[in-house]
């Protein structure tokens, strides 16, 4: 999880190549700045890759960007959604209302939308986050200090897609050869799109040029290994014929193989640091998260960012248990891990699967 230090300037609408446009859609009050929505020109109307955050100013930017590219929102033929986070799927419902466009998403992400759309009162949301952090090993003082700063209101519900994406599918972009690549990790159903005859990868949040996507545990797969999935998905897209990456944030880049290796090294360094931390004795999940190096000092992160950091640490610990390098102390609260011990230990039980769900954070921190 890397956090941008300042808001990224919103770039202009840009023609990437003949018939393909990049339209920046602002994310209000978010250091990421904007989502890059891509629009294919087809004889059935434009097909979008993602839609942007559900906000009136974001909608106006999307509509204006489409006009600048020579399109109308009412003519949109379809939306291919990389994943269900609200800065990518938030405006899909508005697009559908304006145009009748189909909305396509991987079923693993589509299945999570009803849970994401449950509105919670502010106090209930804050209390839920506080309980999660207490369970990880945070003290009452550490939680109380940050409750007010991290208050957050409910999100509007997002539309349920009416089409499903499958790995390797040639998607419905008339006149273009576009293949869906299932790349789980940042979300269970994250999907990239490869433009086969142009050597381009529409990467969503999977591979970004200078920041890394949040990889956390998901309610949708309590026994999963999202970091293991993510690392495998990085290798999956590292294809020699891909010469340009079009990400959902920041800017496009042409060094995919190098960037894949950098991101893998980043996570391997976190895994190694966690193993070293456990070498001195058992640690709570909170202690392990605090021991890692984040983009800002730990005490400068607000409660929501602490939740994201703890959740990402949980995903790393799940991966370490799968590698046989760590074990969770069974039945112990707060959640505590120790170095894996191959010798029988009768003092307490071990859980090498780490069957704990810490909840996926939908706050999209990087």
Automatic annotation (TrEMBL):
The record's listing under SMART domains reads: Lactamase_B (SM00849)
Region Disordered, annotated ranges: 339-366
Gene3D superfamilies of this UniProt entry?
Answer: Ribonuclease Z/Hydroxyacylglutathione hydrolase-like, Winged helix-like DNA-binding domain superfamily/Winged helix DNA-binding domain
Looking at the record, the residues that make up the Metallo-beta-lactamase domain are 34-249
Bias (Basic and acidic residues) occurs at 343-366
Identify the PANTHER family for this entry.
ENDORIBONUCLEASE LACTB2, METALLO-BETA-LACTAMASE SUPERFAMILY POTEIN
- Provide the protein name: Unannotated protein
What organism is this sequence from? freshwater metagenome
């Amino acid at each position: 999880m890397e956090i941008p230090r300042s808001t990224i300037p919103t770039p202009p609408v840009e023609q990437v190549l003949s018939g393909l446009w990049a339209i920046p859609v602002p994310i209000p009050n978010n250091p990421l700045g904007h989502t890059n929505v891509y629009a294919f020109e087809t004889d059935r109307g434009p097909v979008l890759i993602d839609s942007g955050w559900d906000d009136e100013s974001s909608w106006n930017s999307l509509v204006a960007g489409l006009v600048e590219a020579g399109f109308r929102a009412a003519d949109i033929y379809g939306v291919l959604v990389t994943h269900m986070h609200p800065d990518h799927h938030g405006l899909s419902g508005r697009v559908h209302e304006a145009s009748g466009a189909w909305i396509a998403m991987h079923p693993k992400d589509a299945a999570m939308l009803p849970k994401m759309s449950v509105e919670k009162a502010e106090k209930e949301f804050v209390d839920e986050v506080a309980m999660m952090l207490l369970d990880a090993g945070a003290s009452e003082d550490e939680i109380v200090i940050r409750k007010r700063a991290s208050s957050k209101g409910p999100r509007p519900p997002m539309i349920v897609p009416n089409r499903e994406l499958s790995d390797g599918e040639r998607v419905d972009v008339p006149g273009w050869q576009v293949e869906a690549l299932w790349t789980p990790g940042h979300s269970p159903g994250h999907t990239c799109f490869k433009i086969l005859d142009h050597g381009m990868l529409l990467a969503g949040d999977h591979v970004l040029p200078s920041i890394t996507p949040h990889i956390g545990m998901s309610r949708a797969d309590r026994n999963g290994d999202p970091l293991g999935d993510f690392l495998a998905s990085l290798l999956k897209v590292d294809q020699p014929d891909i010469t340009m990456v079009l990400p959902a944030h920041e800017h496009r880049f042409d060094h995919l193989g190098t960037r894949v290796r950098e991101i893998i090294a980043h996570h391997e360094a976190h895994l190694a640091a966690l193993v070293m931390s456990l070498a001195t004795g058992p640690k709570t999940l909170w202690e392990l998260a605090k021991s890692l190096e984040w983009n800002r000092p730990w005490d400068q992160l607000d409660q929501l960012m602490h939740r994201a950091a703890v959740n990402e640490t949980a995903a790393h610990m799940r991966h370490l248990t799968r590698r046989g390098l760590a074990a969770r102390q069974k039945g112990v609260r707060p959640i505590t891990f120790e170095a894996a011990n191959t010798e029988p230990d009768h003092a307490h039980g071990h859980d090498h699967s780490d069957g704990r769900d810490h909840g996926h954070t939908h706050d999209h921190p990087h």
